[in-house]
Amino acid sequence: MLWTENRKMGGEPLTFLGRGAAFNPTEGNTAAYIREEDRLLLLDCGETVFERLISREVLTGLKEIHIAISHTHSDHCGSLGSLVFYCFFALEIKAHIVLPADEPDYADSVRLLLKQFGIPDAYYVCEVPSEVTGFRAISSFRFVKTVHDPHLTCFSFELETPEGGVFYSADTCRTDELTAFLESHDQIAAIYMEATEFSAPGNIHLSLDCLRAALPEAAMEKTHLMHLSSKGCMEKAMNIGFMIVDV
Ligand SMILES: [Zn+2]
Ligand SMILES: [Zn+2]
Known about the structure:
By secondary structure, the chain is of the alpha/beta class. The chain has helices at about 5-10, 50-55, 75, 80-90, 105-115, 175-185, 210-215, 215-220, 230-240, and strands at about 15-20, 30-35, 40-45, 65-70, 95-100, 125, 140-145, 155-160, 165-170, 190-195, 225, 245. Mean pLDDT is about 95; it is low at about 1-10. It binds zinc ion (ZN) (2 copies). One zinc ion binds next to loops.
């Protein structure tokens, strides 16, 4: 189903393959996609993602795939190698790896990761976010640098759609980028955020309380949580009034 059709029926812009945090694999690694006919945009590709793409037949008949990786923790990129190989050999297409134009060190780290997975350069192509085109549901896609693990570069994603902006932050420890998104968008289609039940100094994740404090009521109605660590975390989130993505 197209995103816009899905929205008309009360659905959400993105389709999720998982909503778990790194140590919660039963919920699947957090990842989402938009598919329009034979074209796919995938946001993150953690350890459980390739299996779910196959079992849900998301890859069937694909002629074009764009993959954006938020950061190189393995719950966000652990099955990227298998997916790129599958694209090349089974689908006979080269995956498009979307890399931020102004972050050469990050781009190099993703290319190195693919090399370590044993993937020759010739099996995929790199592109910048402005080359993610041809989707009726997306007029623009961009990486927004955030803070998560101090040892890694990490990004949130922003998408512009006919229904307004979409903000997606699978791993972050702060709300600065979310606040900037809220301030720069009169129309918001959806906000997808990670959150954890823990709030301790030095936490590399965002606490539920901190996220709630950053959201005005109108934005709360558009906000869905993902990357959740446990059933207890999900219950606490719902008690606060958060919605949780369906998988
Ligand atoms: Zn993660
Ligand atoms: Zn992470």
